[in-house]
Amino acid sequence: MSDAFIAVDWGTTNRRAYHIDNGHVVSSERDEMGVLSVPPGGFPAQVAALRDRFGSLPVLMAGMVGSNRGWYDAGYVACPATIEILAAAVVESEPGVSIVPGVSVDTSSRVDVMRGEEVQLLGAVAAGLAPMDAMICQPGTHNKWATLQQGALIDFTTAMTGEMFAVLKAHALIGSEMGGEVDADASFDAGVAASADEDLLAALFGVRAASVLGRRKPGEAAAYVSGLLIGSDCRARLRQSRQTVHLLADGLLSRLYTAAITSVGGQAVVVDSHASFVAGITRIRDLMR
Amino acid sequence: MSDAFIAVDWGTTNRRAYHIDNGHVVSSERDEMGVLSVPPGGFPAQVAALRDRFGSLPVLMAGMVGSNRGWYDAGYVACPATIEILAAAVVESEPGVSIVPGVSVDTSSRVDVMRGEEVQLLGAVAAGLAPMDAMICQPGTHNKWATLQQGALIDFTTAMTGEMFAVLKAHALIGSEMGGEVDADASFDAGVAASADEDLLAALFGVRAASVLGRRKPGEAAAYVSGLLIGSDCRARLRQSRQTVHLLADGLLSRLYTAAITSVGGQAVVVDSHASFVAGITRIRDLMR
């Protein structure tokens, strides 16, 4: 019996599908058919189309497809979560099509939720890409900071760092100054340094004041604001010095978070997020059979 | 010679006009003819219309009417600013019509700007409504925290507290949970308490998680977010305990800031903002003659 299957990392705005056989990616595709782009009742047809392309295989999905805005609400398992617990809680949306649940923090003092990131997080550990005891950061719209202990996801915190940047750029008064490119440059570093004041609301207005008084070059504000937000996020998480953070990111976000983590006294180790997802979803599939 | 004049507090979206004689308000009006509602070249006609209603008197204005988006850029005077310095820097936009400049903080380490608030701040002190040495807070879209020393405005900080609330409510994912009423209630207090973590980006996402997990009643999130933002703002400003803050606010903002300032260990004293403006603009007018 072949252990080939189709794995789908199905987010709000994007989707990544993999044809996996014996733990190896045979082929993959990425498109913008996120759950918000699928019309009501349209998920079975989407899965049929995936099977037309990849073969008539079992399908295992993770991400927002398992939310109340997706196909079928797969619920949450509470921390501490392991890959075995996730595999045992997988639900079927139709025969041969399964969805991995999300993970929650649900204590009297604090609540949090993730959906989709858990496969990458536990997959990184399963694949040996991150140690059994680790702090792992997944930068994005809703940035996840996860604590792994003995291979289990015991706690995590979500920061709306990416969404805050997007909302400020599109809708705040300072958005009109934020047209420039963002990279891990001197303006970004200045923002990270300014985040040490722990006074985000005042620092953000400072962008406007600097513009009015001609104290910052046009085009530098976007990187500064990015540094301010990512710096605030990293400082709130890295309360002990020399903390190592495993970073599930590539491209620009990998550069920005590496720079900010280093600036605030931590060490960043970049981990391949696609390999982590493939390792995690394959391990869940193996445990289901 | 009568010392009657027309004073206008002319902001971005609102305008308040006063007919003042011998320091007393004869009549006043408030409308939504902020500078953004005045068509290009339309300011002289607006002033003529004010004179039709209040009499053919000299006009003295403050606020965004003196910005590059208003009638005539009245510039800024740098801190430390006194009411005498403001009066000496008043500019004429046409004969008999004058505009008070804004105030800036412009040092190598920090910049900030205000325009319009300076008349209230220095007026509060001139009228004896606030002491010569005071911390004064003017809540609003861009919240001002001013340090007065020996009657001079020596420093201030602007926090985008009000704008942040509005932008989150209108455009963030958590905005859909923020439909409820805001008041100084238990939800607001919980937000102020949560702001002690100094982790705004994570606390804001927590609003979403609490909603997904059913841990906060619908309608309570708006007051909680308001408490989180105003609490963060007050904590960043009240670094010493038992600090007294004079609050130029009325209505809801007065209640919210009084509650937050008290929660974080300070003392709030509410000051009449309209009386402060009238005292300040009258003093500037007297010094000009």
From TrEMBL, chains A, B:
Keywords: Kinase, Transferase. Gene3D superfamilies: 2-keto-3-deoxy-galactonokinase, C-terminal domain (3.30.420.310), 2-keto-3-deoxy-galactonokinase, substrate binding domain (3.30.420.300). Its EC number is 2.7.1.58. InterPro entries: DGOK, DGOK_C, DGOK_N. One of its GO terms (molecular function) is 2-dehydro-3-deoxygalactonokinase activity. It is an enzyme of class 2 (transferase). One of its GO terms (biological process) is D-galactonate catabolic process. This is 2-dehydro-3-deoxygalactonokinase. It comes from Novosphingobium chloroacetimidivorans.
